[in-house]
Amino acid sequence: MKKTAILGSTGSIGTQTLDIIKRNMEDFQVTALTCGSRIDLFEKQIEIFKPGLAVTASEENARILSGKFPEIDVMWGSEGLFAAATCDCDIVVNSLAGILGLEPTYEAVKAGNNVAFANKETLVAGGALIMDAADRAGVKILPVDSEHSAIFQCIRGSENSEIKRIILTASGGPFRGYTRRQLETVTLEQALKHPKWNMGKKITIDSATLMNKGLEVIEAKWLFDIAPERIQVVVHPQSIVHSGVEFYDTSVIAQMGLPDMRVPISYALYYPDRAINEFKSLDFFSTGRELTFEKPDMKTFKCIAFAYEALERGSCCPAALNGANEALVAEFLSGKIKYTDIQDTLERVLDNYDQKFDMSLEGILETDRKAREDAMVLLKKQLS
After folding, report:
1. Cα 216 to Cα 172: distance, rounded to the nearest angstrom
2. Domains defined along the chain, listed by start
3. What are the pLDDT digits (tens) for 200-234?
4. Orientation of helix 303-313 relative to helix 339-349, angle to 10°
């Protein structure tokens, strides 16, 4: 049995991970679960999977759980999150949202735990830190994002020196084909309706601005140790080809399937093996699908370009871009700003980060804090 800890078990990735485990209880032992505020769902998960450790964000919820489940250890806050990340397990699934996932990932890696992560912000902000720590500890960093899982599968058994380019596909989001003028009137409700994927709110907004794809470019650079100019973003509205790799002999290997996040989650959970799944298969004959591919419109949707710029500038710029974006998306989700305010503010945020910054864990977190503050200052000036 594979001992598994899940950080963020009540979110989209967390619940789908537990769906796979529930279908295959003989293959997994859940050692730890953590949640934010969805305590009712968390209680049901504890009843079914019986983890040795349960962690909540608040002390009050921890007291409630301790009363209901005296047979398990219950913790709360950062201390509990780190305890879950470093518990005795074979793999830690990090499905936390945003920069919150950085420190637990770092602690998990240092403890010698393999990490399967959907938390791309961890590598965006601290790619060098995490990958260096993983190399020293001899642990695996396994991607759960459908695109990076696809690339990971395509290059399996190949050398990095054989790769000519990575082809990173994007659905184009709900506003593909929109003009700048049309984007000005986009509502929160519209932005939360992704045409293909069912995801959490933050990543859904990132997908609508195409910042998600920009963050994935940065993530791919660190995961696969490949120069940004060899990462090509291709819009593929049908979301059947999840990404691919071109090798120097011009052969292209791509991974295909229906848009179901349980497939890449399953691949990470069972790695290096493949599971026998009962998910719906891709039927080439009955769907009548036409597979199309387009260049991304980076003049209207500039966030992808911001990511390449952040990588070119280097140092703390990716961490700053990520922190500012998180702050602005939170403002949009709370109804305080327009959809276009996110991109317009991000366009100027990197100007404050040309100098070299400390890229230790503390330095990255300080960059994140400063970038959030800078984004709010820029936003206020923009709206005044």
Report:
1. 14
2. 2-143 (3.40.50.720), 158-258+296-383 (1.10.1740.10)
3. 889 899 999 999 999 999 999 999 999 999 999 99
4. 20
